[in-house]
Design goal:
The chain is of the alpha/beta class. Helices cover about 40% and strands about 15% of the residues. Helix 2 links the parallel strand 2 (about 30-40) and strand 3. The longest helix is centred in the middle third of the chain and has 17 residues, at about 125-140. About 40% of the residues are buried.
C-alpha cells in the first residue's frame, strides 16, 4: 500500500478539504492510504472522524502564527520521524505564502512532492508578497504542479517552470448524488415548512469576505421586494456568520432567511432550491456551482468566477459591480418560468469524481 501525506490547513467542510475527502472516499483503499498533516486543530462538524474511519492518520503542526521558528521546528521534527512512510506529499492551498512543507519533504527525500492550486487570487498584501516570492523557489521543491482550473494555474505557476507544465485536476463530484429528484425536493421542503408557491434562493459557502454574503443579502432584499413568496437558504459556517445574521435582523427579513449551518446533505438540500446565487469576489473552481448545475438549477454567479465552471446552459455570469437591483431583476426573469431540472451526465464526464481519481492515481504511481 502506498501512503500519501495530504497537507492542508484543516479538515473543515470547505472546498479544498471537500475535494480531498471526496477523492479519499473513491480511491482504492487497498492501494492507497491518505494521512493528513494539518495546521488548524480539529473542530466541530469537520471531516476528521470521516477520514479516520477510512483509515487515515491525522497529525497537527504549528501554524506560522505561532512563530516561524516554532513552525519550522515542528515540520522538521515531523518529517524526520515520518518521511520514510510516504511516497508522496500532496500540498493543497489557496496561495503559496509558504512552501516549507515541500522544503522539508525534499530535505527528507520524499520522491513525489505535489503543489496543488485551489484559488485564483488572494486576500491580504502580506500573502501576495510571499506568494510571488515563493514562485522563485517552487521549481526546486515541487515535482508536480496541479490546479483546479486554468485561472488557478495562472495565479500559482506563471513565471515558474510549471507555467506550461501543470495538470488541471477538476473538482470532481459523484454526479448521481446530485441529479434532481422531485421526491427529495418535496421531502426537504416539508421539513423546512416551505410550500410549493415559495421561490427559494440558495447559497453554499463559508462565511468569509470572498463569498460576499453581504451583497448576497442585498440582492435577496431587492428580490424580496419584487416577489411575494420567497426564502433564502444559506448553507455553511464561518467567522462572518454573526455579522451576516445581524444584517438580516437590520433588514427585517429574519422570517425569510434560514441559516442551515454545515451540512452533509447538501446534495438533497439543492433539490429544494429554485435558484442558486453565487456572488464571490474570486474563486478557484468552486464545487458548489458544479453541484448546483448537476441538480439542474438556474445559477447567477459573479463574473469573477472561471467560465470553466460552466457545464450547463443554466448559468449566467453577472458583473459583480452591477447593483443588487440588477441582480434581483435577473433572478426575477426565471422566477415564473417552469424549470427543466435535467442534466446530461455523459456530456460532462470530466467533472466526475471517477475521472479525478484516475488522474491522481496516475500521478501517485509515477
Amino acid at each position: 500500500m502506498k501512503k500519501i501525506l495530504q497537507i492542508t490547513n484543516s479538515l473543515a467542510r470547505h472546498g479544498t478539504e471537500t475535494f480531498i475527502v471526496n477523492v479519499l472516499k473513491h480511491i482504492n483503499l487497498a492501494d492507497f492510504q491518505f494521512d493528513f498533516l494539518l495546521f488548524t486543530p480539529e473542530m466541530s462538524g469537520d471531516y476528521t472522524e470521516i477520514v479516520k474511519q477510512l483509515g487515515s492518520q491525522v497529525y497537527y503542526a504549528s501554524s506560522r502564527s505561532m512563530g516561524f521558528k516554532t513552525y519550522c521546528k515542528v515540520l522538521d521534527d515531523f518529517f524526520r520521524k515520518h518521511s520514510k512512510e510516504y511516497i508522496a506529499v500532496h500540498f493543497s492551498g489557496c496561495t503559496m505564502s509558504t512552501l516549507m512543507p515541500l522544503y522539508y519533504a525534499k530535505k527528507y527525500s520524499i520522491p513525489i512532492r505535489i503543489i496543488h492550486a485551489h484559488s485564483s487570487s488572494y486576500s491580504g498584501i502580506h500573502n501576495y508578497i510571499l506568494h510571488e516570492f515563493n514562485k522563485f523557489r517552487l521549481g526546486t521543491l515541487a515535482t508536480h504542479a496541479l490546479a483546479c482550473s486554468v485561472e488557478a494555474a495562472e495565479w500559482f505557476f506563471s513565471k515558474t517552470r510549471f507555467e506550461k507544465n501543470n495538470i488541471i485536476i477538476r473538482n470532481g463530484i459523484q454526479y448521481e448524488d446530485f441529479i434532481f429528484s422531485n421526491e427529495i425536493r418535496q421531502s426537504i421542503r416539508r421539513k423546512f415548512n416551505i410550500d410549493n408557491s415559495t421561490f427559494v434562493l440558495g447559497h453554499v459557502g463559508y462565511f468569509m469576505p470572498v463569498k460576499n454574503h453581504t451583497f448576497l443579502l442585498d440582492v435577496f432584499y431587492e428580490f424580496n421586494k419584487r416577489y411575494d413568496s420567497t426564502k433564502l437558504l444559506l448553507i455553511g459556517e464561518g467567522k462572518l456568520k454573526d455579522e451576516i445574521s445581524e444584517k438580516v435582523r437590520k433588514l427585517n427579513i429574519e422570517h425569510k432567511v434560514l441559516f442551515l449551518g454545515n451540512r452533509s446533505d447538501v446534495n438533497q438540500l439543492l433539490q429544494a432550491f429554485d435558484c442558486f446565487v453565487f456572488p464571490s469576489l474570486y474563486e478557484g473552481l468552486p464545487f458548489s456551482i458544479i453541484e448546483a448545475q448537476v441538480a439542474g438549477l438556474p445559477i447567477f454567479a459573479s463574473d469573477r468566477i472561471s467560465k470553466e465552471t460552466q457545464i450547463s446552459n443554466n448559468i449566467e455570469y453577472i458583473d459583480i459591480n452591477k447593483s443588487s437591483q440588477y441582480w434581483a431583476e435577473k433572478i426575477l426573469s426565471v422566477a415564473n418560468v417552469s424549470q427543466d431540472r435535467f442534466f446530461d451526465v455523459k456530456k460532462y464526464s470530466y467533472f466526475s469524481i471517477d475521472h479525478t481519481v484516475r488522474q491522481l492515481t496516475d500521478i501517485y504511481n509515477s
